[in-house]
Design brief:
heterodimer, A: about 270 residues, mainly alpha, MetI-like fold, 2 domains, 13 helices, B: about 300 residues, 14 helices, disordered C terminus
Chain lengths: ~270, ~300
């Protein structure tokens, strides 16, 4: 019996009957993935114009990027803000998720909903609100201001990832440790944290990426020497198309692909 | 004698113990909640206070007195009506495209044997993890006049002269649908995975053809997931900024674009805030409906 006429499930449906679905799904998946990767060949084009496929290959746009003070400065800002955001949001989000999950207090649900509002409120509203408030507080165009705002955006993601992993974790293990004399803090660091560590790493990578890729808040509250990569990219896209963007995009695609594959690998380890 | 004595003290101390235990438990709960305080402070500083401030500003007139003039303008001026209409149109169309494309894809993923899901899921997760700006830029390149899509279509013979695909509604919709698709596929896939396959076998056993079993059993059961995913997409579209601003080329003015335009050109915080408040209320309303249709709690929250 060939694959074509073999049953696709326990019903009478065969792979042949379902072939149209496989074709449609494959086309959709290619359409989802390919457009992103188009930036890679584009970035090696020798031309000013965005011709595809490029006639001549060169690395000139990478040279422009690595040779430009503006782009290097912006990249440094984005990486710096991303790393600090990750270092702040991961512990804060983990603490909050743990607290709300373990305490069993009546207010937990309301607090959880409040803590995930950064995901719910339209980002444009957060951006202009923060811009206005920072104007009063003198935090516009500062690293501190940007980190604070990005931390608020990353906390809900950290909480969702950590809460999900706590749900599949048996908290009784912590109780056992405490009944054997460990303090709550010791029980958490010795028993719980090692078992949810892969989720904590995933949450950290997500917070970095949230900050690194964030555009709208950065457009408003970052500027001057502390303007982010995304802010410069956005203005470049709106005004004229600079092929340097293709080189930067390629680097960004590589960064997110590597981070995603890392989480997938970690997820597989966790199971 | 001793037995009676123990019983007596036991009786009299029982309420005391209970009270002390209760107090201890309450104290422990509060200490634990203390761990959430730093996160709560940051969310207060970045969301509650700024958005609350804008809420207040939206009710302050240009003369500094409390007034509803910013909201009144929205009703009076035709330009606002156009912005709302465009926002609604783009959001509905994007959601529609996402359903048409996302349903077969989710169905395909839900039918896959478990060991293949991880691999094919990458197709959904990879765009999800890639910067929005990069994806918007990629579409800008693909859709331009002498871009890949126009070249391909002319070679195949779909059209003879290059068609304007970007800096207009078409480009905006293509880009938005690409960015929003994962937000529909992920909840829909999860809802489909929860459908009991035995129901399909039962339907087949009772004489339904595969097609009729799909439409009469599977599809209705997948509807809550589809509606929830669609509402998420719809709500995200309402407040979207980057893609319409870049791919719309100034021709697709949505609420978020209008808010920035008001701030950049007129520096009118009241008008911008009022528009933001309307956007927030619309968002909350649709999310509330989505919440009623689909138990997000189960997905987001610890309680089973």
């Amino acid at each position: 019996m060939s694959w074509w006429s073999s049953p696709a499930s326990d019903t009478q449906v065969t792979h042949g009957d379902r072939f149209w679905l496989y074709v449609v799904a494959s086309v959709i998946m290619l359409l989802l993935v390919l457009p992103t990767f188009i930036v890679i060949p584009m970035s090696f084009s020798d031309s000013q114009y965005l011709e595809f496929p490029p006639e001549n290959w060169s690395s000139r746009w990478y040279e422009v990027y690595f040779g430009s003070t503006k782009w290097m400065r912006a990249t440094a800002t984005s990486v710096q803000v991303g790393i600090i955001t990750m270092l702040v949001a991961t512990p804060l989000g983990t603490m909050a998720a743990y607290a709300l999950f373990v305490s069993g207090h009546r207010a937990t649900r309301a607090l959880f909903l409040f803590l995930i509002t950064p995901m719910i409120v339209p980002v444009i509203l957060i951006a202009i609100g923060v811009f206005y408030a920072y104007g009063r507080a003198g935090l516009n165009n500062t690293i501190t201001g940007l980190v604070l705002a990005h931390t608020a955006m990353a906390i809900p993601l950290v909480m969702i990832v950590i809460t999900a992993s706590l749900r599949s974790y048996d908290l009784n293990q912590e109780r056992v440790a405490r009944s054997l004399g460990a303090t709550r803090v010791k029980a958490f660091f010795l028993i719980t944290l090692p078992q949810i560590r892969f989720s904590v790493i995933t949450a950290a990578l997500l917070s970095f990426l949230t900050s690194f890729d964030e555009v709208i808040i950065a457009i408003f509250v970052s500027g001057g020497v502390n303007a982010t990569l995304t802010k410069h990219m956005f203005s470049a896209l709106r005004d004229f198309i600079d092929p340097t963007i293709a080189a930067i995009s390629t680097i960004m695609v590589l960064v997110s692909t590597v981070l995603l594959l890392m989480t997938q690998f970690i997820g597989a380890r966790e199971k | 004698m001793t037995a009676i004595g123990i019983e007596k003290t036991g009786q009299s101390e029982a309420p005391l113990h209970a009270e002390e235990l209760h107090r201890q438990q309450a104290r422990e709960q509060w200490t634990l909640l203390g761990l959430a305080v730093p996160a709560l402070i940051i969310v207060c500083l970045i969301i509650l206070i700024p958005v609350g401030w804008l809420f207040y500003l939206s009710f302050v007139g240009n003369d500094g007195e409390l007034s509803l003039q910013h909201y009144a303008k929205m009703v009076q001026y035709k330009s606002y009506a156009r912005v709302f209409a465009t926002t609604f149109q783009v959001s509905v169309l994007t959601t529609g495209i996402c359903i048409l494309i996302g349903y077969p894809l989710s169905y395909f993923l839900a039918l896959l044997p478990p060991r293949w899901v991880g691999f094919f899921m990458l197709a959904v997760l990879l765009p999800f993890w890639t910067s929005l700006l990069v994806r918007t830029y990629a579409w800008l390149v693909l859709l331009q006049k002498n871009g890949l899509l126009n070249d391909f279509a002319m070679q195949v013979g779909l059209w003879d002269t290059p068609v304007k695909l970007v800096h207009n509604m078409t480009g905006t919709l293509i880009g938005m649908a690409h960015i929003m698709l994962p937000f529909l596929v992920l909840p829909l896939y999860n809802a489909m995975k929860k459908i009991d396959r035995d129901l399909m076998y039962a339907a087949g056993n009772l004489g339904a053809s595969p097609v009729s079993a799909f439409w009469r059993v599977y599809f209705p059961l997948s509807l809550p997931g589809m509606v929830a995913g669609s509402l998420i997409v719809f709500v995200l579209c309402l407040g979207f900024y980057v893609t319409p601003a870049v791919l719309g080329g100034g021709r697709v003015i949505m609420v978020a674009t209008q808010i920035t335009a008001i701030l950049e050109n007129q520096f009118d915080w009241g008008a911008a805030s009022a528009l933001g408040v309307v956007l927030l209320i619309a968002t909350m309303l649709f999310l509330y409906i989505a919440g009623r249709l689909f138990k997000f709690d189960a997905a987001l929250f610890g309680k089973n």
